[in-house]
Amino acid sequence: MSSSPESGAVASFLELSTRAFSANVAAFRAVVGPGRKLGAVLKGNAYGHGFFETLAQAHEKVDVLYVITPREALAIRAWENERDLDQHEVLVIGAASPTECVHLARERVAVVAAERGFGAVVPALRKERLTLDVHVHLDTGLGREGFTPAQVEAGEADFLAGAGDVLKLKGVLSHFANTEDVTEQSYAQAQLAAFEQGLSALSRRLGLPAGVQRHFAASAATLVLPPSRLDVVRVGISLYGLWPSTETRLSARVVLGEVPTLEPVLSWRTPSQVVKWLPAGSYVGYGCTYRCGAATRVAVLPVGYFDGYPRLASGKAHVLVKGKRCPVLGRVMMNHLIVDVTHATSDEAPVVATLLGRDGDEVVTAEAIAGWAQTIHYEIVTRLGPHLRRVVVP
């Protein structure tokens, strides 16, 4: 277990393991095999792990970087320029306005065309005499962004053919709706069929260029649905060492013959603000929802729901202190947790608590916190406050 990254500091911090991230990249390289590109999804502040901290690791280890916003893509280019690095392949998979597309074109960042209103970018690009790389998004059953195969057949994407002077068609993508929550993939198979239908329609109407990049699989599909591993895979949560779901883990054993080892990259720790005894009968926290049945040594931790620790975990969660489980007492507060450390430490000296991660033989997983908070582990990690100090460790 590590201690605080700043001597004397009393604030929670996140540790990000470079070894774990590298191991996860290697695991996915082994799954997809040679001849396919591996992409890293950096959306949601890199799933809460820190955008720039993750970028520094991913840039040299993966083939494509995926972001949601134009601002994130431009931040990558600025980061590369500051370090005199070659430009990486970057795709904005979220929305981009015509003005933003002009900036992205200048920086050679690709964008997604997902509806016919995207045609508004054409005059802006022509005015600036710029070309923009475009990936067409097909909606194959998620019901979110993208052209349905029927819309392609009806000509709603035909504007792309007439804008070949400024829009360069580089890829076609889609997104699965239900690969994580099931162990059978009938709906995903139907989506794959719809993708092929959409590809055929695009080819007939637009004339897809040779070598157009096809991508569909995110973390779960990459692991359990081999036909979805096309030219590139877009790996998000699992590159950070988290399984998309229990069902995905079960299916991976069947499909791959073994369960790949995914190593969580992130740990969340905090030094105590104070450690003290409370006499029997003392109430703890707002609302007096917990009362000490006996004299209790408690640690007050300077972390709360402002930082991303879920209030719904009140009275259910535990943290780790010196390798021992210590229950959270009473309500999770905006800036504080109070935990019972009676059996973890023998005095009132400061302690370091692990909120998420391993300490000795014990571990608190993102899935466990999600269970206490009645949500999913995606939400737990992506809600970790951007203000929290992120420390890259070996």
CATH class of the largest domain: Alpha Beta
| pLDDT averaged residue by residue | 96
Shape: elongated
The name of the CATH superfamily of the largest domain reads Alanine racemase
Structural class: alpha/beta
Number of distinct helices: 12
Kindly provide the radius of gyration, computed on alpha-carbon positions and rounded to a whole number of angstroms.
24 Å
CATH topology of the largest domain: TIM Barrel
Q: What are the key terms here?
A:
alpha/beta; TIM Barrel; eight-stranded parallel beta sheet; seven-stranded mixed beta sheet; 29% helix
Topology, element by element:
Blueprint: E1 13-17, H1 18-32, E2 37-41, H2 43-47, H3 51-58, E3 64-67, H4 70-82, E4 89-92, H5 98-106, E5 110-113, H6 121-128, E6 132-137, H7 149-153, E7 167-173, H8 186-206, E8 213-215, H9 219-224, E9 232-235, H10 246-256, E10 266-271, E11 274-278, E12 283-284, E13 290-291, E14 296-301, E15 318-321, E16 324-327, E17 337-340, E18 352-359, E19 362-364, H11 366-372, H12 377-382, E20 389-393
Parallel strand pairs: 1-20, 2-3, 2-9, 3-4, 4-5, 5-6, 6-7, 7-8
Antiparallel strand pairs: 1-10, 10-18, 11-14, 12-13, 14-17, 15-16, 15-18, 18-19
